[in-house]
Structures are given as C-alpha cells and as structure tokens.
Amino acid sequence: MKQIFFGLIFLLAVMPARAQTDTMKIKDLSAEWRMRSSRDGIIPLINIESFSGNSLFIPIPLSEYRGNLLRLYSAEEVSIFQGDKLLMLFQGEKWMDVDSLREVYGDSVIYTLYNRRLNPYSISTEIYRITDVQTSRMIRSDQVIIDAKEKSDIRNVLIFTILLILAFATVLYYYYPRMVRDFFRLTRAVSLRELDENLMKTRPLSLVNLFFYLLESMLAAWVLFVLVQYSDFYYRFNFMHFEGFGRGLFIWARLALVIFGLLMLKYLLVRSFKALFHISGFLNSHFYNYIRIGLLFYTVLALFLFAAIFTMHIVDPSFYRGLMITVLILFGLRAVLIYFKLMNESSHTILHLFSYLCATELIPLVIVLSWGINQTM
C-alpha cells in the first residue's frame, strides 16, 4: 500500500506538462441556442430543461470570432442543415476554422441540428482559441491536436480525490496492516478454495470492516466518475454535469455514499437469502469475497485510469466506452468466481447452491448489466 501511495505521488510530480498548445474556451454558444415553438415560432432557448421538439437552431456571429475555432460535439447522430441544405450527418466532434466559414457564409451563419429525438444535453457548441505556447501564435485548425474533454475542474477533482483515497488507505494500513494485507492478497482472492481463516472469522459489520467498505465505495465512485466524465455517453447522465471544483467533489462524494449504501444492501440481501435457503456458514465467505475481489478490481482500474489520463493522455471517448463495457463483463466474472469458491466449500447440491446464487448474484447482476449496456450502446 505504501509503494502504491508513493508511486502515485511520483507520477503526479513527473507527469509531463502538455505545453505544446494552449487551449482556451472563449465562448459557450449554448446561450445563443433557439428552438421552434408551435405558438411563437423560433424563440430563444432560455432554459435547456424546457427544450421540446427535434430541431436546435445555432446562430453563430462569425465576425466576432475571427482567428478562432468552432467546436461542435454531439454524442448522438444529428443532421446539420444550413438553411434548407443538408450539410452532413454528424456524430462525435468536429473543429472548424471560423475564418474559413466567413469566406463561405459571410459575417454570420445559422446551423440547424435535427434528430427525431434530439437531446440538447448531448450537444456542445463552443468557440476556442488555440495558441502555440512557445511562439504565442495562433495555430491553424488543420494542425491542432486537441483534448476533447480537457476540463481543468475534472482533472483537479480527480487528483484531489485520488490523493484523499490514498491518504485514507494509508491510515488504514498504519492502524490495520494485517487486515489490509488480507483484503489485498491476490492469490487468495482468485483461489477457487477459501484459504483465509483470519478474515473470515471477523464480524462483517465491525467498525474496521466498515472502513474497508468505505474505501471500496470511494474507489468505485472514482472509477465511475472517470468513466462517465471521459466517455461519449457523459451527456446521458445529467446528474454528473457540474461546473466548479466544489460541485465536482460533491458529485464524487455523493456517488461514494450511494455505493456504500448499496454494499450495505448487498449484505442484507446475502444475509436474508442465506437464512431463506438454510445455508449456514456462507455469510462471511460470500460477502468478504465479494468485497475483496471488488477492492482489487477497483484498485487496478483506478491505477490504469490514472495512468491513461495523466501520463498517456488518452482522451478518445470510445476508449472509455469500451472500458465501461469491459467493467460490466468483469462484474460477471466476479459472480462466477464466487460461485466456484462457495461450491468447493459447500455440502449442498449444485442446484440448491445455484438457486441461492441466482437470488444473490445473478439476478442483481443481470439488472446492472441490462441497465449499463443500454446506457453504453
């Protein structure tokens, strides 16, 4: 645990500064958006929550932003019109040079974005200025390599929260070194037979164990926060939208508390069905293995995501979409591993044990998978 802590501190200290370009957002054009009203025609979109219809009108005063770049982003496929002319079918991100647009359209242009089920939360229209840091000169649009999700608030929240998690884990290791080693022992976590007598004899709801459940909740919330913020389905989760460091920190803390509550619900579920199926001695083994595998799982994911963002600078939303799907698949593998662990220490029939696991693992897993896959597809 100490090695992980100091290793991440070293990464924070030496991660290369991205000094090739200076990217500055100078205007969010969402304040200029308009919608079509059946009664009043085209009207300003004062509040995005009041949007209705299937078309979004975006007036762009090109003369005001000479020498800059227009960034369009849509998480879902939309048709882009200029007047009655269809320009393109578009999904993802596109950067356009404002001066080049002025040569075609003059001092202003109005783009119309259309989709039968248009979601304005999935759309972003912004004006950026991109300069070379060393020469302070503007960079042409065809030379720009831009971080599509480069938000200083997100990065600050991620750095602060990972340091908070590491500090909490270090305190746990200082006071409970044996418990930390037991929870993070990889060979026992993946073994098909239960070998850990020390951990299994402790009480699941003792104070020290609650600390470890909180640690797992913090790690899981951090991983979920990263995957949502950097993926291309970010706009589908309205509750994850934020501006400012404090609001981002609040969202992460709220996620951690929700996940902690779900872990407690998981414990009650396992305990209830253990009594219902008359299976003795399974509570500690089942629940601790669930927590232990999750702790290892989220720790590895957090380290990988930290490296992907701060050292490898991976910003492709499809990468994080694929990683989210991988996470959902790994949830299934955890259930399979728990099944074999319990089967090897149980004297009950396979059918009886399988029915118990269906109620405690497989049905909740199917619910999570169906929801998660529907969100990521």
TrEMBL record:
Establish whether keyword Transmembrane helix is in the entry: yes
Q: Which InterPro entries match?
A: DUF4271
Membrane-crossing ranges are: 157-176, 210-230, 250-269, 290-313, 319-340, 352-373
Q: Which Pfam families match?
A: DUF4271 (PF14093)
Q: Which residues form the signal peptide?
A: 1-19
Its domain of life reads Bacteria
Per UniProt, which keywords does this protein have? Membrane, Signal, Transmembrane, Transmembrane helix
**Any idea what this protein is called?**
DUF4271 domain-containing protein
Please spell out the taxonomic lineage of the organism that makes this protein: Bacteria, Pseudomonadati, Bacteroidota, Cytophagia, Cytophagales
